[in-house]
Amino acid sequence: MTYHPKSDFIAIMMERGFLADCTDYQGLDEALLVPGQPAYIGYDATAASLHVGHLLNIMMLRWFQKCGHKPLTLMGGGTTKVGDPSFRSEERPLLSPQQIDDNIAQIKQVFAKYLTYGDGPSDALMLNNSEWLDSLNYLDFLRDIGRHFSINRMLSFESVKSRLDREQSLSFLEFNYMILQAYDFLELNRRYGCILQMGGSDQWGNIVNGIDLTRRVLDHEIFGLTSPLLATSDGRKMGKSQGGAIWLNADMLSPYAFWQFWRNTTDADVGRFLKLYTEMPIAECDRLGALAGSEINDAKIVLANAVTTLCHGAEAAAAAEATAREVFEKGGIGDDLPTLDLSADEIGAGISIVQLIVRSGLAKTGKEAKRLIAENGARLDDAPLTDAGLMLDAAALASPVKLSAGKKRHALVKLAG
């Protein structure tokens, strides 16, 4: 698409690779020439932390604020009670109101690192859709809002169609989700003058619903903008690793493990990720991304430091890099490695190496740990580990031992006390 934007925000989104689609590029671009415009992204509170898969959209909100506009972070205290069915093969487990509130409290801590909240014209607002959804009267809602939705059209959306085509159950509860999300956009426009909803490209249908509903009910023109659903160059879903989700909260994933995830970026992704997940100038992102051989590893450290600094602070990034250097370059132990503390009671007469590999998070199951050993992928204190039947007693763990899975994943095991 050859469109030359006038607003700073659209220009940044286009040149850094954030844009998948927009309902009206020109209309939105013109609207964003006026500072202080509100835009929102919604986040359901299905876990106690967001993960790296959410980071692309958090960076969009951050750039939106840096361009002089007002980000609205909408917590789905209401919609989490229903669950978004988009491109899922089964219904989400329903959470209790207390679980949802606890998750929201945890998630809020992440946003505070990326956005400035307050009462100023470009200060972010933290909102919760339970404010208007919890008190809805069902009959009034059906009459005033439900009449604007065509079942035929809702059935045509890809997120619904894919579920029905595979003959997987879609409950009426989930089917209502897209109506509630559309209603969120209407309420945010009515209450806060919000003109834009952003989200991943899987949210396109839900976003368009909100725009249509707001036009029908309030006769206001609003916009939608989506980002690409990222996969790494080797085909993995962004934000997932062999060990599971890459969480943004430090108490769910250590800053060291977070740093290490970015340090392990595939060579082909370095330039693209620098543009999306850091604020470094485009020319520098391109220069670093074009490095070859061992030099690309320096670029990966720049990427890991920049992303970790934004999420966990400069000190955590520096500590992670120092630990990595100690572990990889000097063969040392490193203070910041994930650590498994064992009591003497737990060890008893001895504890198997397979159990230690699983409990330290280097393998998910005993079977996986045994396979790791059989394929020569496991090391004990940097020496090849070949005996899956090895037992360690308290004396062997009197000083910390280092377990490794491959070249990049390490953990310490030590006696507590």
Automatic annotation (TrEMBL):
NCBIfam families the UniProt entry points to: tyrS
Top EC class, one word: ligase
Source species of the chain: Pseudooceanicola lipolyticus
Tagged with keyword Lipid metabolism: no
Protein name per Swiss-Prot or TrEMBL: Tyrosine--tRNA ligase
EC number: 6.1.1.1
Superkingdom of origin: Bacteria
Residues annotated as binding L-tyrosine: 40, 177, 181
Role: Catalyzes the attachment of tyrosine to tRNA(Tyr) in a two-step reaction: tyrosine is first activated by ATP to form Tyr-AMP and then transferred to the acceptor end of tRNA(Tyr).
Main location: cytoplasm
Motif ('HIGH' region): 45-54
Catalytic activity: tRNA(Tyr) + L-tyrosine + ATP = L-tyrosyl-tRNA(Tyr) + AMP + diphosphate + H(+)
SUPFAM superfamilies according to UniProt: Alpha-L RNA-binding motif, Nucleotidylyl transferase
InterPro entries with a match to the protein in the record: aa-tRNA-synth_Ic (IPR002305), Rossmann-like_a/b/a_fold (IPR014729), S4_RNA-bd_sf (IPR036986), Tyr-tRNA-ligase (IPR002307), Tyr-tRNA-ligase_bac-type (IPR024088), Tyr-tRNA-ligase_bac_1 (IPR024107)
Subunit structure: Homodimer.
Higher taxonomy: Bacteria, Pseudomonadati, Pseudomonadota, Alphaproteobacteria, Rhodobacterales
Motif annotated as 'KMSKS' region, chain positions: 237-241
This protein's UniProt keywords: Aminoacyl-tRNA synthetase, ATP-binding, Cytoplasm, Ligase, Nucleotide-binding, Protein biosynthesis, RNA-binding
Record's subcellular location: Cytoplasm
One Gene Ontology CC term in the entry: cytosol
Family under the similarity heading: Belongs to the class-I aminoacyl-tRNA synthetase family. TyrS type 1 subfamily.
Sites where the protein binds ATP: 240
GO-annotated biological processes: tyrosyl-tRNA aminoacylation
Sample GO molecular function, one term: ATP binding
